[in-house]
Amino acid sequence: MGNIVFGNLLWISVQPLIRMFLCVACGFGITKAGLLSAMASIGMGQVIINVTIPSLMFSTIIPSFHSSNMAELGPLVIIALMNMLIGITLSWIIKQLFWVPHRFRYGILMVGGWGNTSDIPISVATSVMAAAPFNGTDDENLAVGYIAVFMLVWSITLFPLGGYRLIIMDYDGPDLDNDRVKERLSTKHSKILSRLTAGFVYLRQIFFFSHSPVRELHTEVGQNSTGEKESPHATSTHENSVTTRHKPPEQEEIGVSTSTNEELPTSPSFTSILPGPALTGEAQKVFTTTTDLPNLPAGHVAVTHVHWFKKFIGLTSRFLRSAMTPPSLSIIFSFTIAIIPPLKALFVAGVPGTHIPSAPDGQPPLAFLMKTSTFIGNASVPMGLIMLGSALARLNVPRNQWSSLPLCAIASCAIGRLVVMPVLGTLICQQFTRIGLIDPSNNVLRFVCILVSGLPTASMLVFLTQVYSGQYIIVFISMTAFTTLTLGILFG
């Protein structure tokens, strides 16, 4: 591993996971003991969303970002969207291969697309950044600021852009029992297999036709320098005999003919330039009558424009209302303050090019707000992990019902999110580094970009957590290995 011993890398990697799971275990234990009710968990969740997470974002983004490193946000947004698309694609493939309950046919797409971009990555990143080879508090704040971009993309795509509608779509129409769903999937697999078989046979037909002796015979006749011609009867008899002799056996099964006197399919572009037959008077009349469109009145067009304008205004209004959540607003305001030096100097000392009078204690005038935000924000990650443990403690799946669960889909989603996506995320980050989108010397940015690709399903999606909570057990092993390899790539 070059500069760092493998044992040190392993300890740096496993330490944040131990701390994280101790917090989860506390939530699990007090819930099993009856000390944390479901209503108390709901209240704790409201505190996290509306108080602690906004405070954490505010206290970490403002001191970490400035106008010179704002360009790093572009690759973060691109990677966040790519991770989401990759996860949704993997879930869609799993849905085609394995059965999923009818009321979860779209929810499985959320399992792959929306990962836990808050509690787990912040816990791991801050713990790793606190020790060598990173630079302590400065890198901790920078890492949380980078993760905030992923949280913002997560929030905007889930609510303002309508990702939550996947849950609503699951409950459209009547429900189907699991046996019916399995039967439909089996029928679908049979149809796909038959189509693939037919396509393969069709390709063989094309291959045999392109290498048919009939075509060779036509070539030889066309190149005959003596100008001799066979009689039409002899040529026809010879071609029929050759065609029959080389006719593949699969032709009888799918009804494909290779007779040379049949026309081959032509492309639409080629067919469109061929001269067609002249239309008769009656046909021309019908053609003219059916193709002439009535002129729409101007009032109707104006009403249509007003309708679309109102619809656009309504969609924009709903988008803005959905985006006005405390975490999103905190992230947006924090980045705005961070890139405006006079505003940033009100909260943070030592901003170049500014001369803001200090408070009586020698600190910036609004430094007390920054300290308060830091104090409150420090409770965000422990509370979130305790809530995760509480949610896991409420799971109750009797052993006699395990056979009724979509075990193949559950296992495949866990492998996809915790094995396949980290590999793809590492490759994407390395490629972005090679082409210059990511600074090779910015190890904090590279670490965060790789880290967020190997996260389990978002714990905030409660019903998804109940079905796919096994990912949070596997993640202890997968993320330890993943973090070790990432540090090896960065500092090896």
TrEMBL record:
Membrane topology: Multi-pass membrane protein
Pfam families in alphabetical order: Mem_trans (PF03547)
Top-rank taxon, per record: Eukaryota
Transmembrane region(s): 17-35, 47-67, 73-94, 143-161, 328-352, 372-393, 405-424, 444-465, 472-491
Keyword Membrane: yes
InterPro entries to which the protein is assigned, alphabetical: Ecm3-like, Mem_transp_PIN-like
Localization terms from the record: Membrane
Ranges where the record places region Disordered: 219-274
Entry keyword set: Membrane, Transmembrane, Transmembrane helix
Polar residues: bias regions: 233-243, 256-272
Keyword Calcium applies: no
GO CC terms, sorted: membrane
Biological processes, Gene Ontology terms: transmembrane transport
PANTHER family hit by this protein: AGL149CP, PROTEIN ECM3
UniProt protein name: Auxin efflux carrier
